[in-house]
Amino acid sequence: MKAVKAGICLLAVMLISGCWGQINFDQLTVVSAIGLDPAKNNMIRVTLQLSNPTLPVAAGGGSQQRRPFVNYDAVGVTIQEAVERIQHQAKKSLFFPQTKVVLISEQFARRGLDDTLDYFWRETNQNLNSWVLVSRMPARHVLDKAMELEPVPADEWRKYLEGDWKRPLQIDVQMYQFLPRLNQTGYQAVSPGIGPFNKSGKSDIMEIGDTAVFKNDRMIGWLSGEESQIVNWLTGASRHGSFHTDLAKEESVSFNLNSVRAKLTPVLSGGRLSMQVRVKGEAEVLTATVPLHFGSEHAMLRDVLNRQLTTAIEKTIDKVFRQFGSDVIGFGETLHRRMPAEWKKRKPDWDEELRGLNADISVSFEVKRSGLLH
Amino acid sequence: MRTLHRQQISERQFFFIIFVSIASLTFFSVPSQLIPKVKQDLWLSMALGAATDVYVACLLYRLGLKYPGKSIVEYSRSILGPVGDLFSFVVLLFFCDVCVTAIWIYSDLLSNSLLPDTPLIAFSGTLTLCSGWAASKGIETIGRLSLILGTIILISTVILFSTSIPFVELRHLLPQFEDGLGPAVGGAIYPASWFGICILMGMLMPHLAHPRKTLKVKVSAVLLGSLIMTGYLLYSIAVMGVHMASQMENPLYVFTRITRLVIFERIEVLTLLVFVSGSFITYATLYYSIALGCSQLFRTKSYKPWVYALSPLFVVLPVLGVTEKFGQWPPYLAFWFPVIALAIEGGVTTLLYVGSLFRGKKR
User: Is CATH 3.40.50.920 the right assignment for the domain spanning A237-374?
Assistant: First the structure.
């Protein structure tokens, strides 16, 4: 019996040497970013930004002259096929769980994504927390030309998108939030855009801004920073913001907005559906191009701010619902949560419903601080 | 035969054996069936599943007190004679089916998610080796291990739930009862059938130091286990949304891929480690109960030879092509397994209890 036990122990030692398919660290390379572009014959061009880690100085890496990253690209019918081709080029095992960013070129997004992005659903090594960006130029060019403070551009973009300090005009979305909304009727997908801000020869400074709007799996247009901020409020993604009001010709006041709360309520009246939008919050004056007497002009400032915000929200809703026909605000989902039976009836024709939807908008911001006594 | 019952476990050890079994079986087996069918209303299914298990626990408790020191296999014979032996055989066969099915699900998940190049037999082999070894050492060993692993599951769950709050969107849990109560009530068969495996209480009760406390301990363990696993299921929906959660093979695993544990990302390996350890306790307890039950049914001197005799079954059966095909055959896990499980867990225990009432009157 003892001999049997000893034999089993010896076998167990064999098991702890490592699992099947173990990969040594030097055979592994981390994929920092994935770029997706359209290619000829309905194929996909995949670009992978592979990190090339440098050794710490203490470990003898001080004098190393290595590129911090290398980009490889290949074309395939599916993403998987292209990735397999890149694997042959890189001659290393590709490590996806730490991918920071997935860049989708505008051209590819406008072609439609649903039948290609299932790779990110199925492949268990993919990072569902990677940030999604739509690039105004081919994703391969963005990855090749981006010049950032961090050695690997994808690291810089990820830190920016993760940071709480980023501008409220910015929408951000991670892969696990983006994927389901590509085929969800009542709450459709958006993604921040990225494009060259300042072309300077070989490399470009990239700017993350504006928002790509999708209708189902297809991109249909862009929202500006201010419109993105309003979508952020209406979806509850952000409670802060800034807004510039025009008092008169060449007289403007900028506000910082805090504690912004938006409430969408479906209202059914005589079989006709409408949307009630209530937005409230607090404002503080940041800068003014004219002298302000906060005591006497407080009510006027508040009214101007509320009026101009109402107009901006109206315009944004009009743009997404009527111009794009896309429910990026998630009003369909609000209806689904509040009136499930009504949603079932209206879901099949939701696109049509959206275009004819009336929005009753009410904005109530209180101007709390002027920043100065007078 | 009395020598087989010499080992004793405390109430706390029994509590953790049941708690860990519920947690690990639910983690691996319930989500893929429950979330697509019941969605946000799954908390009601889980509550009904727990209630069904409490009902079965009450019957087993009464039977255990009526026949002190006897296991379900032994008092089945006392109540129904040779027919009771047939009942015991069916229960033991069902335990074997649970083991094979659960090892298959466990191996399949590990192979698909974590170790794609590792052959399935390595999972079933190592699990059977470890749990069989613990089973051969007896229920005291399993009880002591369950104290450690149960505490780890509890602590890691509390930390995970707290640090996942920023990822939660409560609106994903609405609307409730969109299609009425029907789906939630119907869906209760999935948690009920897997929780019901705890009829192995009928095998463990003779080992308890204070059998009178069994029901209270069992009910507490079932309630805590189902509460925590309902938390996991609701968290996965609240984080991913029901649309994504209902398409994933194991949404609980995907939830741990998305969320963070304090500052650590990609903690799915840690979570799998915790629940794989939990599975080890579950299989060890099941393995021990089957071996002990066989020795009592076939009146052998010791249960240990049964541990060795059953091992090839648990290593090979879960990874056979036929088993895999059968497991992937949708009606098996969606219909046949829960129906058969409930018929045995609820049906056999109810029949035994009713039989014991007549037996009592006859006396």
Answer: no
